[in-house]
Specification:
This protein has about 625 residues and is an alpha/beta fold. It contains 18 helices and 16 strands. The strands form three sheets. It has an eight-stranded parallel beta sheet. Strands 12-16-15-14-13 form a five-stranded mixed beta sheet, sandwiched between helices. A three-stranded mixed beta sheet has the order 6-8-9, with no helix packed on it. The chain binds beta-D-glucopyranose.
């Protein structure tokens, strides 16, 4: 592809001491493996088969953007720099005050439920209203519609719900991750959602955080490769606008820049880790918190969300060194930077390099009042800020142009949840299973095994999908397609109705769903006591016992002798068939741990140190096969 994309390299990273030498630095390529023998296999594909290094914006887009900018008043520029919540009241503002974007956010009132009834058809009609309103505005600038497309188009009831990112990290299969994110893009574009707040680039150090499952893992090189694959899948193999011929392409917004995986207590919102403090020196910040973005930049990433955390006491949203000097300067990021939800002070954030504001304001103001206030603050910034404002709007318009947003029309909502898409999810589920223990070759099960499937997660689409599913905190019960684990096992070998009638007892131990700070937990002892009791009962009855753990983080397993086999199943999403594929030997297990697995709460924060001084129950890269 050639051209000059982002510069820099993923240097000096890797998980120290995790069984092999630290990962080698990479420049301009994601080929090769990550650190500690845990690197991804397969490769992402540039269409010419060469190194991924997308050169953008095109000359045509630069010319078009400059012409539009010349026509805009300072007020109109300020309006492009604000994203509105897609409320009915905001709809009225779209044609009069054309904002840069609208969205249905997770937190706050909208709770991802843009159209209320979240069928694909309702979403298409709902997003269409906003696009029509934008088409009636004085300036012909396309409007982005954003959603947290965290694991598939998780806002639509009949969409394919993909495994959460920690499960995808366990696959170490870049081509598969690219395919998974491409399905997410297709199922989003089909209903008019053309922008996602993802993929997540954090390399997590603290398992008490409610966002561990959004992270591909704890190895910065492996994570950087996964994020690049996700961006190529979502936006297209040649960057913005190369993914979805005819409909106008999707835009990814990786988050939360920078170093959010290094975050720890105290939390600004009074939970444990979320919106917390990142207390590391600059080289550590670069290795763990900045460099994982580089391959995504080389893939033409269109947007980055800044972290609403503090680095050594200072707000990252207002950090000029990180946003302007490092990200836009040193790394050559061409896209635009958005804040997190109601983060930062408007003037200082613009000065630091922020280009767009997400739900600014807050307090007792309605979203529309708060957003109007922010527009006015930007429009009244001193003349010395004019070139900064022009830079911000240029970046936003370039992204829209390069992605082909002017030609955007939603696809066909009836393609959402297709069999072809479910097949990709099922493969991802199977590849994400990590076998932690298999005493006496308890697995795979024979086709004639008499299996009793029980436990809190056995028949729970809600627990299987986790947070960011239909609602912010997760309501997988409203997912209309897919298969629970119990139903999937039953398809292969009709299950028996009681423990007594079984020769094999599968206990699905599970966490309830959660998202963000609401999922923070001071302890990793989060699996229900009743699930462990079921293990004890099955053992006492002399059964073969298989424990499947569905969780958003590594959780305490206590005593591995309670079951013959243990599988980490992450949050697999709607396609439980992929779990059965492993249980019955249709697919050989290849998943490897993307995160360490602590033995006790004392190990809940590993902090990026070498294995040896940190001795978890299982370490990154562990996973058995047969
Ligand atoms: C989260 C972001 C998310 C945004 C919009 C915030 O609370 O931190 O990750 O993209 O809400 O839903």
């Amino acid at each position: 592809m050639g051209g000059t994309g982002a510069t820099g390299s993923v240097a000096g990273s890797g998980v120290p001491g995790s069984g092999a030498a630290a990962g080698s630095g990479q420049s301009g390529s994601v080929a090769g493996s990550g650190a500690g023998g845990t690197g991804a296999s397969g490769s992402v594909s540039a269409t010419d088969g060469g190194t991924v290094n997308v050169n953008w914006p095109s000359q045509a887009c630069q010319t078009q953007t400059a012409a539009m900018l010349a026509k805009m008043s300072k007020m109109q520029k300020a309006q492009q720099m604000v994203m509105l919540e897609s409320t009915q009241a905001a709809l009225g503002m779209v044609s009069s005050n054309l904002p840069g974007a609208v969205f249905a956010g997770g937190s706050g009132g909208s709770n991802m439920d843009g159209p209320g009834n979240q069928s694909a058809g309702s979403w298409a009609a709902f997003t269409g209203q906003f696009r029509s309103a934008a088409a009636g505005a004085a300036l012909q600038i396309p409007l982005l519609y954003g959603l947290d497309v965290v694991h598939g188009n998780n806002g639509a009831t009949n969409a394919v719900i993909m495994p959460q990112n920690h499960g995808l990290g366990a696959t170490h299969d870049l081509a598969l991750v690219q395919a998974v994110y491409n399905v997410a893009a297709q199922e989003s574009l089909a209903v008019g959602i053309n922008w996602t707040f993802g993929p997540f680039s954090g390399v997590v150090w603290d398992y008490r955080w409610g966002r561990v499952y959004e992270s591909f893992g704890g190895d910065p090189v492996a994570v950087s490769q996964m994020v690049q694959a996700a961006v190529l899948g979502f936006q297209g193999p040649n960057g913005l606008g190369s993914g979805s011929a005819g409909v106008g392409g999707a835009v990814a917004c990786s988050k939360h820049f920078a170093g959010d995986g290094q975050m720890g207590p105290p939390s600004a919102t009074g939970v444990v880790v979320d919106r917390g403090q990142i207390n590391v020196d600059t080289p550590t910040m670069m290795t763990w918190g900045v460099n994982p973005y580089i391959p995504a930049l080389q893939a033409g990433l269109g947007c980055i969300m800044v972290s609403d955390a503090h680095w050594n006491g200072a707000s990252i949203t207002e950090d000029k060194q990180l946003i302007t000097m490092i990200l836009k300067g040193q790394l050559g990021f061409k896209g635009f930077v958005i804040t997190d939800w109601n983060a930062g002070n408007t003037g200082p954030a613009v000065g630091a390099g922020v280009d767009m504001f997400m739900h600014p304001g807050g307090g007792n103001l309605s979203p529309e009042q708060a957003e109007s206030n922010t527009i006015n603050i930007i429009a009244n910034l001193p003349a010395g800020m004019d070139s900064r404002i022009d830079d911000a709007v240029t970046r936003i318009l370039n992204v829209k142009c390069q992605a082909g947003q002017a030609a955007f029309a939603p696809g066909d909502p009836s393609t959402v949840g297709s069999g072809a898409h479910r097949a990709i999810a099922r493969k991802a589920v199977a590849e994400s299973m990590v076998v932690l223990q298999n005493t006496g070759n308890a697995l795979p099960l024979g086709a004639t095994a008499k299996v009793f499937v029980t436990g809190s997660g056995a028949n729970s689409m809600r627990n299987q999908c986790g947070g960011w599913t239909i609602t912010w905190q997760g309501n997988g019960d409203r997912v209309t397609g897919g298969t629970t684990i119990q139903a999937a096992v039953n398809k292969v070998s009709p299950t028996v109705g009681s423990m007594a009638a079984a020769d094999t007892v599968v206990v699905v131990l599970s966490e309830p769903p959660y998202a963000e700070g609401a999922g923070d937990s001071a302890t990793l002892d989060t699996l229900p006591a009743g699930d462990f009791t079921l293990l004890d009962q099955a053992k006492a009855a002399g059964k073969k016992v298989v424990a499947i753990v569905m969780s958003g983080r590594p959780v305490l397993l206590h005593d591995l002798t309670k079951a013959d086999a243990w599988i980490a199943a992450w949050l697999p999403g709607s396609e439980g068939d992929g779990v059965a594929d492993i249980l019955f030997g249709k697919v050989k297990p290849t998943g490897k741990l993307p995160h360490h697995w602590p033995a006790s709460d004392a190990q809940a924060r590993w902090g990026g140190v070498a294995v040896g001084s940190y001795m978890p129950m299982f370490k990154i890269g562990d996973g058995l096969t047969w």
